[in-house]
Every structure is written in structure tokens, then in C-alpha cells.
Design a protein that fits this description.
Largest sheet: 3 strands, mixed
Number of strands: 11
Oligomer: single chain
Radius of gyration: 22 Å
Strand order of the largest sheet: 1-6-9
Helix content: 40-55%
Strand content: 5-15%
Shape: globular
């Protein structure tokens, strides 16, 4: 299986740094771009696009729990950056030295704009040009959707005139950084998706799932329309995506044992499945993907809350719990007392699928059907997924979910969604639940922690925090605000 191509000629164009570089960098080296091979090499730098560094996803929702005694006994296991996100501080997040999510997604946008600025001028086959052009439009649309669902208000009619994103459409460093409206942001995303749909490739490329296809776009649009409340459109796109013959559910009964890790003083042995050992040569090719994207954390500790653990009702037979919820997993970080779980899927707990997968699309469909009152259809969709996630030696009646009415169906589908996609989708879901017309799915996130200031944590001052609706928009980092030279307006708090 061939991994990503080298991009030595191009890498000088896109440098690591802050918003100032990604939003205001003049592409001085565009003259070096001459061929379609070079533009394709940019897209095929898969690890550069696949990772979505989101401290919010990892620390800010009810999926994460840092009990007071755990923190007090193991202060060095957590950074102050992580704690600022954990208590959903506004001032604390603004004051951090950087924001990898903002800069990372704008880096992708800059690369997409670079491709679009050059694709019609380079030498090469016309069909390859059209393919890479579609890739660039989809890369940009996906990045803007991610940014909008962190830094902007949740999508609904009441918020359409609220603050959107700075829409960088070109590589011109003089282009305005003024924030658009939320409606303008979504209009731009949908326009990019429309351009991406011109791609000739219908099916997911099993060797390069980071390249766009009609099936990938349909899978993503089933998510987009679910989040905008356009349920008929969501289910129509889901049905298109689910005809894929490449993206498919993995039967978790077939996952092999991975490398174990033993500890002493006191003795402990942690057992993992094979994915925990995978590097890029394998995790980029996870066969459930329509399009490769992972939530990433440099801390490598997704610390499940008691509330999240309680959602796994059948801990003996649910292979998502048995394979990925590692009891005593805090030993990986020298945490002994109290014992703490660790959620780990790929690459020593660094990555969790965030891009559209077959399982997500099934759950999108199941949720729409449940909200529309089609109880049997919703349960049928969700049980297809459970058939690949529960132990095979269980009776079918124990694997399958049933619902008594519409409310029960919605509740059970949303619980299954949380079991299937903890951390990666929870922030997104909490936001949209808060503005839809169904109050029963609203989520309140509370933290029983300590008083947290810009300078530290006072472990002698217990404090309870509640995530407010205003804080559903992540604050824009102060470094990025400064780089915008007054053009970028902060969210209202």
C-alpha cells in the first residue's frame, strides 16, 4: 500500500506558525508551481490534512471528567492549557500562547486557495486538474465547517446574522479578515460543496480516502443537513452514501489483540487492540472512512467521565467499551491513585475518527428517522451498526435495540451516537441540541473542580462550573486577534 507522496518542492510555501501567516501570507513561491503533480502532492500530504487538533473536543464536553482527587493527586499530568478548556474559561483560552485548531484549519484553507489559484495554469492532464480542483473545494468547505462549529454560534435561523468567520477565498494577503455573518459562512461552505460535487469520481478511493468523491460529499452533507435541521436532505444524502461498496462497517469482533503494556509498583497490565499500535501507514486507511479526518490530541489522554462510561449499558458485550475504554489507563501517564480510565482508539490514543464514516452516516439516518417518528426505521438503522459492535456470541435479541415511542427512539439513537463517537462529535452535538426544537435532548455540562485563574489552579478552593450557552462559541485566541490588527472581532460573552 503506497503512502503519501513527497512534497519537497512545495513545503516552503506553507510554514508552521500562527494566524498571521495563514491568513495574511503572500505566496511568494507560487512561481515554483508548474505541474499538476505538484498540486496533487499537496493534497496527498495526507497527515497534514487528516488531523484536527481540538482541545475543545478533548476537554470541554461532558464526555471528559477530571475528578478533584485525580487532579489534586496528579497535578503534573495536566497542563494549564488543558484545564482552561476543561472549565471552559473565556479569558483563559484567549490568553493561551496559541490555538492549534484555528491555525491548523486555516492552514488547510490556505493550501486549498493555493491550489485553486494555480490549477488552471499548471501543465498536466485536464481530468487530474478537475479532480484536484474538487479536492481543494472540499478541503476548504470541510475546514470552514469545522471552524464554524467551534468559533461561531450554533446554526439556526435566529443566529444567521451573528458573527461568522473571516472568509479567505484567495492567497491575497490584503484580503479582509473581517468576520462574515454565519449565513455568509454557510453559503460559502455550500458553494464549495457544490463545486466539489463536479468531481468525476463516484466512489471512495480505498488507497486514498483523503481524496474527494461523490460518496464522501454525500456522507458529509448528511452531517451538514442534520446540523442545519434540514432532515429530508440529510436522509437523502445518507442514502446515497450508504450505497458505497468501499466504505464499510468493520466488525469489531475481528479486531486483533494489540501490544500490551505492563507496569510495576503496583503491578498492572493494560490490554489494547491492534489499532492502538497503528501508524500512519495503517490509520490513514481505516476502511470505515468516506473521508479521512481525525480529532488529535498531543496529550494522548481522552479521559472519559463517569457520565460517558454510564452510557455503555452493556459493558460485558459492547466491544467499543471493552476495546477502547482502558481501565487503569492513567498508568500511561504515571497516574496510579485514583485509578482512571483512558479512551484510546488509534496510535497510542492520539487519534479518534472525526471524518464522515459509515457508522456516522448510519447514525445520521437513524436520528432523522427517529425525529420524524419512523421508529422501526430508526431502530433498523441503529441495529445494523450494533451488529458490528456487540459480541457475536450474544443472542440477537440482546444486540438489538427497540423503542416504545418517538421520544424513546430519539433517546436510544442519541445514546448509541455517543457510544460510537465520544469526544470527536460530542461538542458539535451539544451545540446543535441547544438550538433545535426538541428540548429533551439539551445537555448541561457541569464541572465540580477547583477555582481556576490565568495563573493556576487553587486546589484549596472547590468550585462548580456550568457551560453557558454563550460559551458554545469557542473564544478566538488573543494571538490571532492581534494578528488580525483589529479586523477580527471577538465573540460576545
Amino acid at each position: 500500500m503506497k503512502l503519501i507522496k513527497s512534497i519537497l518542492i512545495i513545503t516552503g510555501i506553507i510554514l508552521l506558525g500562527g494566524c498571521k501567516k495563514y491568513l495574511s501570507e503572500e505566496p511568494k513561491k507560487q512561481a515554483s508551481i508548474k505541474t499538476i503533480d505538484q498540486l496533487e502532492a499537496l493534497v496527498d500530504n495526507a497527515t497534514a490534512f487528516a488531523l484536527v487538533y481540538s482541545a475543545t473536543a478533548v476537554y470541554s464536553t461532558d464526555d471528559t471528567g477530571i475528578p478533584r482527587d485525580l487532579y489534586k493527586n496528579n497535578v503534573v499530568a495536566f497542563t494549564m492549557d488543558e484545564i482552561q478548556y476543561y472549565v471552559n474559561s473565556v479569558d483563559g483560552v484567549v490568553a493561551l500562547a496559541s490555538d492549534l485548531l484555528w491555525t491548523g484549519e486555516y492552514k488547510k484553507i490556505f493550501t486549498a486557495n493555493l491550489i485553486l489559484a494555480n490549477v488552471d495554469e499548471v501543465a498536466g492532464d485536464e481530468s487530474r486538474k478537475q479532480r484536484v480542483k474538487a479536492d481543494a473545494h472540499f478541503i476548504r468547505a470541510y475546514a470552514y465547517w469545522v471552524l464554524a462549529n467551534y468559533y461561531c454560534a450554533p446554526y439556526n435561523n435566529a443566529n444567521l446574522n451573528s458573527l461568522g468567520l473571516p472568509l479567505k477565498k484567495t492567497v491575497d494577503y490584503n484580503e479582509s479578515l473581517k468576520r462574515s455573518t454565519l449565513k455568509e459562512t454557510y453559503d460559502f461552505i455550500l458553494a464549495d460543496l457544490s463545486e466539489a460535487q463536479k468531481v468525476a469520481n463516484d466512489e471512495v478511493d480505498p488507497l486514498r480516502a483523503w481524496r474527494v468523491s461523490k460518496k464522501a460529499i454525500a456522507a458529509f452533507m448528511s452531517r451538514v443537513f442534520l446540523f442545519t435541521g434540514e432532515y429530508d436532505k440529510s436522509i437523502a444524502q445518507a442514502d446515497i452514501a450508504l450505497t458505497s461498496t468501499v466504505a464499510k462497517l468493520v466488525d469489531y469482533n475481528t479486531l486483533k489483540q494489540g501490544l500490551s503494556k505492563s507496569y510495576t509498583s503496583p503491578e498492572a497490565k493494560l490490554e489494547y487492540v491492534e489499532q492502538n499500535d497503528w501508524g500512519a501507514s495503517k490509520y490513514l486507511y481505516w476502511s470505515e472512512f468516506f473521508y479521512t479526518r481525525y480529532v488529535a490530541t498531543r496529550g494522548q489522554w481522552y479521559l472519559p467521565s463517569e457520565d460517558l462510561l454510564s452510557v455503555y449499558h452493556d459493558k460485558q458485550n459492547d466491544l467499543r467499551y471493552k476495546s477502547f475504554m482502558i481501565s487503569n489507563g492513567g498508568r500511561r501517564f504515571a497516574v496510579i491513585t485514583p485509578s482512571a480510565f483512558r479512551y484510546t482508539v488509534f496510535s497510542d490514543g492520539q487519534y479518534i475518527p472525526e471524518g464522515p464514516t459509515f457508522s456516522e452516516v448510519l447514525l445520521n439516518k437513524a436520528e432523522v428517522l427517529a425525529r420524524k417518528g419512523n421508529i422501526s426505521g430508526a431502530m433498523e438503522a441503529v441495529n445494523i451498526l450494533r451488529g458490528k459492535r456487540m459480541r457475536k456470541d450474544m443472542p440477537l435479541t440482546d444486540i438489538s435495540l427497540t423503542a416504545t415511542d418517538k421520544d424513546d427512539a430519539i433517546k436510544k439513537v442519541l445514546e448509541e451516537r455517543r457510544r460510537e463517537m465520544p469526544f470527536s462529535m460530542r461538542w458539535y452535538d451539544i451545540r446543535r441540541f441547544s438550538v433545535n426544537e426538541y428540548p429533551a435532548d439539551d445537555v448541561t455540562v457541569t464541572r465540580d473542580f477547583f477555582d481556576v485563574s490565568l495563573s493556576g489552579v487553587n486546589v484549596n478552593a472547590p468550585k462548580t462550573y456550568t457551560l453557558s450557552a454563550k460559551r458554545f462559541s469557542v473564544p478566538i485566541n488573543g494571538v490571532e486577534m492581534d494578528a488580525g490588527k483589529g479586523q477580527i472581532v471577538q465573540n460576545p460573552y
